[in-house]
Design brief:
Elements (H helix, E strand, L loop, with lengths): L10 H41 L3 H19 L14 H16 L19 H6 L2 H10 L8 H5 L8 H14 L6 E6 L11 E2 L7 E2 L2 E6 L3
Antiparallel strand pairs: 1-4, 2-3
Helix pairs in contact: 2-7
Length: about 220
């Protein structure tokens, strides 16, 4: 293999080096463009896979469980319209409002503020449902059949959400495929409510909570 020595005092050598440099830049830009196109295709594929997940199956499970609980407390209400059953559309709206409340830092606001009529409220909340209905659905929201919960609690600490959780895991295994850049870590979100597997770890910033294993994945 021969090596050419360029003389910068000769115009023809300078011209040849310049043409080689521009040629390498064009090849490099072409590689970058191809890489961007492949990444874009990967992102499009990811979004299309995510859209195939059957969310309605899990939501219908929530609708059925919630309606069973509404039916069990119907006798406590004087007006039937105050305890009418819910449906898939309304449950979707409920979760949408909960997401929207998070966007507006709802954890630091009074719930009434979202339905305020003094110009400070959020129109989407009032358009979706009344505050009274929102509170009722949150109170009645269930993820299992309450009548058999005590029996299942003897061998399953996740009895209240087991069916929904299993469905979620099944969807993840079916539609989410990991690459090579994966790591598993644990986190302790703060939680002071009643829970059979709540833990106390004094070395954590939030000392009380439930341990969760988290998968971090980055696609280069």
């Amino acid at each position: 293999m021969s090596t050419k020595i360029y003389d910068f005092s000769k115009p023809e050598d300078i011209e040849e080096l310049t043409s080689l440099a521009f040629s390498e830049d064009e090849n490099l830009q072409e590689d970058v463009d191809n890489s961007d196109e492949s990444e874009t295709e990967d992102h499009v594929e990811t979004r299309s896979v995510d859209s195939e997940i059957d969310h309605d199956d899990m939501l219908n499970m929530i609708v059925d469980s919630t309606n069973l609980y509404i039916e069990s407390i119907k006798a406590k209400f004087n007006r039937e319209r105050n305890c009418r059953p819910t449906d898939l559309i309304e449950i979707r709206a409920l979760f949408g409002l909960l997401y929207l409340a998070g966007v507006f830092r709802g954890g630091h606001r009074n719930l009434k503020d979202f339905w305020a009529s003094d110009g400070l409220g959020i129109d989407l909340f009032k358009m979706a449902m009344s505050e009274k209905r929102f509170r009722f659905l949150l109170r009645c929201l269930r993820f299992d059949e309450r009548s058999t919960r005590e029996e299942r609690r003897e061998f399953d600490k996740l009895e209240a959400v087991r069916n929904l959780f299993s469905n979620f895991i099944e969807n993840c295994e079916k539609h989410y495929h990991l690459g090579q850049n994966v790591t598993i870590d644990e986190m302790l979100p703060a939680y002071l409510g009643r829970c059979a597997f709540r833990q106390y770890i004094p070395s954590k910033p939030n000392k009380y909570g439930t341990i969760r294993l988290v998968i971090w994945y980055q696609n280069f």
